[in-house]
Amino acid sequence: MSRLATGGLIDRSRPLAFTFDGRRYTGFAGDTLASALLANDVKLVGRSFKYHRPRGIVSAGPEEPNALVELRSGARREPNSRATVTELYEGLEATSQNRWPSLDLDILSVNRLVAPFLGAGFYYKTFMWPSSFWEKLYEPFIRRAAGLGRAAEGDDPDHYEKANAFCDVLVIGAGPAGLMAAKTAALAGARVILADEDALPGGRLNAETHEIDGAPGHAFAAATIAELGALPNVRIMTRTSVFGVYDGGTYGALERVSDHLREPLPFQPRQRLWRIVARRAVLAAGAIERPIVFGGNDRPGVMAAGAVETYANRYGVAAAKRLAVFANNDGAWRSAFAARAAGIEVAAIADVRPTIAPALLERAKALGIRVIAGGVVAGTAGKTLARIDIASGSRTDRIAVDGLAVSGGWSPNVHLTCHHGGRPVWREDIAAFVPGALPPGLSVAGAAGGTFSLAGAFREGFEAGAAAARDTGFAAPALDAPRAEDESVALAAFWHVAGSRGPAFVDPQNDVTAKDVAIAHKEGFRSVELLKRYTTLGMATDQGKTSNVTGLAIMAELTGAGIEATGTTIFRPPFTPVAIGALAGHHRGTEFRPVRLTPTHGWADEQGAVFIETGAWLRAQYFPRAGESDWLESVNREVKAVRSGVGMIDVSTFGKIDLQGPDAGVFLDRVYINTFSTLAISKARYGVMLREDGMVMDDGTTARLGEQHYVMTTTTANAAKVFQHLEFCLQVLWPELDVQLASISEQWAQIAIAGPRAREVLVGVVDPGTDVSDSALPFMGVAEARVLGGVKARIFRVSFSGELGYEIAVPARRGEDLARALMAAGAPFDITPYGVEALGVMRIEKGHVSGNELSGQTTAGDLGLGRMASTKKDYVGRIMAARPGLTDPERPSLAGFRPVNPAERLRAGAHFVPVGGPADAAHDQGYMTSVAYSPNLGHWIGLGLIRRGQERIGEKVRAHDPVRGGDVEVEICAPCFLDPKGERLRG
Amino acid sequence: MAETAANIMNVTDKPFVWTRPVAPGLHGTPGAPGVTALWRENLAFATLTVRRGQEAALALAAAREHAVSLPDGPFAAQGKGHQGKGFVCFGTGPGRWLACSEEATDLAGDLAATLGSTATVTAQDDAYVAFDLSGPCVPELLAKLVAIDLDPTVFPAGSVAVTSTAHMGLMLWKLDADRVRLLVGTSLAASFSRTLAASALEYGFRLEAGRGTGRG
User: Fold this and answer.
1) Mutation test of the interface with chain A: which of B3, B8, B10, B12, choosing the one with the most A Cβ atoms within 10 A?
2) Top-tier CATH class for A300-406
3) Nearest CA in chain A to B215
4) Which of A266, A595, A660 sits opposite B191 (nearest CB)?
5) Which of A436, A416, A414, A415 is nearest to A425 (CA)?
6) pLDDT, tens digit, for every residue of A188-212?
7) N or C: which terminal CB in chain B sees fewer CB atoms within 10 Å?
8) Span A145-166, mean pLDDT?
9) Cα–chain center distance at A781
10) What are the pLDDT digits (tens) for A657-669?
11) Is the Cβ pair A740, B188 closer than 8 Å?
12) In this predicted model, what pLDDT tens digit does every residue of B4-36 receive, in sequence order?
């Protein structure tokens, strides 16, 4: 066990059992999986991406590149979970990934033997040709060999949700700078949100041993959090990573509500995605310690110096029994002293600097730690670290250690500052990139801005909090800054031990070595952007948090350009990985989007209707009856019933728009190609409207209810689009017109009855004394009447099926009553409810165009509606519809199609090619838009767009369907298969 | 349509069905509900749109006939209807208002009679379903539904927002310090009831039916 006897912010009274690769271990509440593994002497935790090298834990935070595990099992299995930020819980199950058959013995580690061939640009160079090998060989091979963990195969049993929060000041990070910023802004009276990705706020105060106002740092953090928590204007969000900065002061954040539990508590989401809108924000995200690159630096046991300190102080874990330190800065010495104070033997400190501050030397001497100034690690040995070689001058020291704490300095967490395109700026004195141009409203405090001392963090936190408060209208309070050390953070930039033994990893997650950077340089991929893509440096889950700066520094050394001139890649959201599930929230499965239910939905459900999604609506597709074997049988029955008796269908889904005002008629004349201002009151007319570009936008009937009152119907699919178009026309094109629009789609239920007996059914539902005879209510007539005993109704004598038909509109909540009343009134005529399939069959039999034909690529002329266009007025789309390309007689136009052999089935989407000619794009004459089986004709029929269609009636072509393998000879006919004179309509 | 097994709506012991509204009763965390929603279909609604150039005349007529100052923005204003049947109207856009009454039977007819020469009045009684929310967890619930700052200092009682939730149009009206009324399109009421319940399960969610429980 490597658990220290005392210390750590863990609860030793709450042991937690967990398993790693099936073996049982115990940790404590407050541990992460990483700290618990280290406490149990588990050092080998994974295999690397490409070479399958054994890897251990290197960090204690979100930057972890190596210790990625599969967490949980079954449908909750979650790959690439960072052990360093995975809170331990009772029963945690973790599995190492990217190894076979076991972590200890991994077959694919033979990749290491061919490592010389797997270097930078390997995929690009190797899998070039022959291209036919891609699908069968290369891609499967790459997919098997690469990748990290395995995604769960079952549906995620947990749920995710989204939420919104608003504040004056958002503080990102609850370390010393963030605590101070939040406290200052909160005491000023601002609404503050303090977000920290850790479960325990405090940042470095929990990891290091500082005294603040005479108390330990972690106690100061806890007290400050308690103080903030008591303020009504403060919201503290722990386990919440702010991952992105968006427009208008909007920040994306992920709250891991239940990730620290085995399963979410009942009714709790696993994660919650927050959209935080803040007038001001303070980025106090701290900094990440970066490594020094040397041969064998990926051996388990090699760790960031600050991580060793964190494991000792926060978790009471000795990451090593005998430790050496390799660094280029003063901070790492304090880590060494802290490790020593925690009881870890520190064998040596090797510092690349020849001259060390006397105070550090004295302290090392007092603690009995050997110092090798001007020393570098030249090599390492052991499956897990057993030995290091330290070269200094001409001398090499071989030291037996099981831990090596490395520090190459610290990189400020500038990520969020880049999300609006800001480019970090190089600061030579701290050898680090600091934030450049900031997103509006965001300021930076503490280590995130390159101010690494504790006193500096408090100072900047106060200043940033005060400024944010002032900017949002609050007077900053006078606060005494906590008394803390202004510790030295001196360093000498140092990146890479040239000539060290063995592969030297720059990016351990992607197995990118210093040599790969050299290859990229040699082959000309020298810009940082190309370096990244060519070598994969800085890609994958950690996005190069520990590797970017060292990688480009090594490139800068090779080019001699210097780091400032070399520049850095910038960061996009998210800062840390965000599960797609969290972005989806509740919108999954059948709740992917809301569905709209028709007024008669409940009734149709009772009737056993099969429903289909049409746009946002759920409509009855057909109404199967006992004994019917498939949908076609039901649909045939429904169609025949309508044509021979009477049927009923809910058409409430059509868009319905109320237009009122003295200019309503003029307005309609301008949006439709045909004229509506001359329409008589109590009459309806079919209209076609175009887009500005001359293509048909929508069609439908519009009725005139009064001198200044029209009601328009649109297709179901285009209801919102048409309303928006009309609003645009009124608000932008013709604001002088006095017309008022209102969507009444939700207000009115509309049910169509059709068939020779339709009038008799109608008589049964209208209130006594209502005359619906052919003379009172002729074809295309409209009546405002009462039905069902006093219910306001609008009756339109229109028909989509080609039969005598009426559409009856009643207020939506009476829709179901109307359906039941129609069924009752129609019972003597065997009224049959029908669905959208039968509706489709009948409109194809009649050649009425619908969504398949109103595809946005057809003109009124293409659809045979060109003669409707008025030449006496202007309307939207008129000019553009006259373009030569749109009036070309060669354009495919609407025609009907019947199979020459009536037994053959037609398929929509088939392309028309000449009989006996080649079936290729050069001979393509158009395509079949809609097909149906006509039970009245006893064969399949189709509508389609074919070149010069209206002139080629009687000609034969092939309907060629390479996708489904069909090739059917069809005869072109008029696009109307039934009752071409429309006698049934007027019956 | 096949049901999808993994579905938030199945986290409750009374699985929700995607084609039906949530059943009335208590859902989610047992005990006193954190959110209670009263599903109301018995309110009267009418849209009011000013006629061209009639802004001043409409304001005058509204003040004279209904003692209401038509709000110039997303706020509610109380008006007096005929026979003492009050209504509230709130701004939904420039020159547009939605009037809502718990008492009137023919709100659109009444308003058209008094304001019809200066505004177009359209009946929308059946177009909206109202969910009146109350309970200690309403603020937390609303944070999940709308991207609007509902802090009392920013969104006091009487404020209205025309917004959307989960791809559904939504009007939010803060009735008083403790209650919020949500209006959704009637056809979306079932979907919305599931969104509401799914978000409120953790607080304990009680759905009460006003007149009728909607479709299905």
Assistant:
1) B8
2) alpha beta
3) A602
4) A595
5) A436
6) 999 999 999 999 999 999 999 989 9
7) N
8) 85
9) 50
10) 999 999 999 999 9
11) no
12) 333 444 444 556 777 889 999 999 999 999 999
Q: What number is the ipTM of this complex?
A: 0.93
Q: Is the pLDDT of residue A108 over 70?
A: no
Chain B interface mutation, best of A156, A261, A597, highest count of B Cβ atoms under 10 Å: A597
The answer to whether B147 contacts A277, with C-beta atoms less than 8 Å apart, is: yes
A199 contacts chain B (CB < 8 A): no
Does the A596-652+747-842 domain belong in CATH 3.40.50.300? no
b/e map A124-161, b = 16+ CB within 10 Å: eeeeeeeeeeeeeebeeeeeeeeebbeebeeebbbbbb
Predicted pLDDT of residue A115: 65
Q: Are residues A746 and B148, on separate chains, in Cβ contact within 8 Å?
A: no
Domain ranges of chain B: 21-41+127-209, 44-123
Least confident of A115-124, A365-374, A911-920: A115-124
Q: Which residues pair with A753 in a beta bridge?
A: A648, A806
Q: Cα dist. A329→A362, A395, A406, A596 in Å?
A: 16, 22, 10, 64
Give yes or no on whether A664-708+716-737 and A889-987 have one common fold: no
Nearest to A602 among B185, B188, B215 (CB): B215
> How far apart, in Å, are the Cα atoms of A415 and each of A285, A423, A550, B126?
9, 10, 16, 51
| DSSP state, residue A729 | I
Domain A1-153 has CATH 3.10.20.440: yes
Chain B interface disruption, residue of A153, A586, A792, A818, most B CBs within 10 A: A586
Which among A156, A159, A164 has the least Cβ separation from residue B143? A164
Domain range annotation of chain A = 1-153, 160-287+412-471, 300-406, 596-652+747-842, 664-708+716-737, 889-987
CATH 3.50.50.60 fits A160-287+412-471, yes or no: yes
Q: Which residues in chain A are closer than 8 Å to B12, comparing Cβ atoms?
A: 267
The one-character DSSP state at A265 is P
**Residue B199 is nearest to which of A161, A596, A812, comparing CB atoms?**
A161
In this prediction the pTM is 0.92
The CATH class that applies to domain B21-41+127-209 reads alpha beta
The answer to whether residues A207 and A309 touch, using CB atoms and an 8 Å cutoff, is yes
Q: Which CATH architecture has domain B44-123?
A: 2-Layer Sandwich (3.30)
Q: Which chain A residue shows the shortest CA-CA distance from B3?
A: A590
Q: Retrieve residue B70's tokens.
A: 């038509």
Q: Mutation test of the interface with chain B: which of A153, A164, A658, choosing the one with the most B Cβ atoms within 10 A?
A: A164
Helix axes A514-522, A548-559, angle to 10 degrees: 40
For β-strands A302-304 and A403-407, DSSP reports them as parallel
Listed by number, the residues of chain A in 560-589 with a beta carbon closer than 8 Å to a beta carbon of chain B are: 586-589
Mean pLDDT of chain A: 94
Instruction: Measure A430 CA to nearest chain B CA, in Å.
Output: 41
Query: Which CATH number among 3.30.70.1400, 2.60.40.10, 2.40.50.140, 3.40.50.11720 corresponds to the domain A664-708+716-737?
Result: 3.30.70.1400
CA A127 to chain B, closest CA, distance in angstroms equals 39
